[in-house]
DNA sequence: CTAGCGTCA
DNA sequence: GAAGTGACGCTAG
């Protein structure tokens, strides 16, 4: 096929998805993305002789590939050759060594995987290094990601817009868009190079595009019936609580309305008059009595209503966001695939939406269900959104968690002897240890809530929480909080020195860097406004640690992805990334082998020779597995079962 | 304290 | 009336 040969020989390929409404990825974002109908590829050979006025050089050419499945009954006849042609071009795009450029390349890769899910394995996208100006733009200035292609172009292109949009045919607009995309990519690449961001871009972020595309193309099974049952259960529970609230209030009112609740609590029941010793929070703009959680907690001993409202809100939150919310993401299917965003977090972490997989409750919710069956009047049921996610038949979920990554990185970055000692001679889990010290109980008595509490306290202090905020978290007076803060920073003196060093550096150069060279510029670090300046200082410190942790987690994802992709037998797939935790779906028979591989791959990141990363602390990875995301139990891996040869 | 997304008034 | 906003609550460190 001539065209295929031409595409293979082209010096560069510039791609965009085309949607059924005629728009492309270069047009401003649609609210609800229309379905894809094809792919437009510009094959560039004349890299020097095109001008803004005549973007298409004499040796450049354009091809439109229809993405559409031929019905099975028609396959023996006409259109199958075209379908195969498109697939072959896609395969070539995935494996070519010449540059391929696509704005929002992840969407392109995912679309390819979805259209050819029968005969295009997700492993095939592993080696693909498609360039993406959206990613480059974000790396250059992660705090201000561009909202659309035009935005990005305006921000970086030296030349003014090529042709005025009015009166020009849509086709020529798209063509000149693709040409500008090519030049924009060149421009961004040179900027990355001059900022020292090239390695981070080409070795990490570009690989992430494939990892995320493969992750998005996977279908996560959800127990839809159970989800519907819990939706109904929570619905009846809310009705019960509403009735209880009306009874407690002595009147009907809309429990979801804070205005009406305020009237009941403070004008009818006058609860604020009965707690003059406590300070009740006020609403910010109107200085009215607040009905926030903090206020209701203060009032809960005076009257039954606040407690009922608190429980109502809790149930409502779970139902609307995590039960009905997930149901609405499923449409008529019985699976979901989240959207994973690479360019929305300043620190380099990734985020998820529809649904936000990273925010599903960790703890199940206990519901007491009143039912009028003889013998038992009350039944306690636990509602756990995570338990709704199920591996496919014959597969198991496996989670691998980097234990205390940020704190370990802080130990490394600060070289604090005390913090290093905790991690190099671990008698116990750090947060468990601290919790047992603070609460005066033995380590075995520390509950998971205690541990969680200790964790919040530690991170709050190291990221610069003020006295007021810290007293809220610790549950002590402001004065005690201050004392705690002082003694903490005295115990870990080098941590304090690291914080000061980082802020100073940010002051001098205007930006800070993570261990792998990720960069955040903080213009506000020199603001004349004290509050604004202090916030920038905290952001600088947080960026160095959080950003470095993100670097490690991404490296882990990529290495594991490459190991599995290049293995003939391994089939484990990444389901989700919970920042420091990777969740995989693994064939039952491969669980042990894969667990050992994941653990050793992740822990081996203590030393990354070619990047000059040598952490002063060991990395610890905890692995767990289960037949639902809600019921994972720890897996103990013998230390050296099979040391993998790390690819990079 | 720092990062997000989803829901609501 | 619809669309935008800030507070809150869930997550992760």
UniProtKB/TrEMBL annotation:
Q: Does the keyword Protein transport apply?
A: no
- Tell me its EC number(s), please: 2.7.7.7
Reaction(s) catalyzed by this protein? Answer: DNA(n) + a 2'-deoxyribonucleoside 5'-triphosphate = DNA(n+1) + diphosphate
Q: Which organism is it from?
A: Collichthys lucidus
Q: Which domain of life is it from?
A: Eukaryota
**SMART domains, per database record:** POLAc
Protein name stated in the entry: DNA-directed DNA polymerase
Q: What does the UniProt keyword field contain?
A: DNA damage, DNA repair, DNA replication, DNA-binding, DNA-directed DNA polymerase, Nucleotidyltransferase, Transferase
Give all residue intervals belonging to the DNA-directed DNA polymerase family A palm domain: 386-590
Please state which protein family the record places this protein in: Belongs to the DNA polymerase type-A family.
GO molecular function of the protein, one example? DNA binding
BP GO annotations: DNA-templated DNA replication; double-strand break repair
Q: Does the keyword DNA damage apply?
A: yes
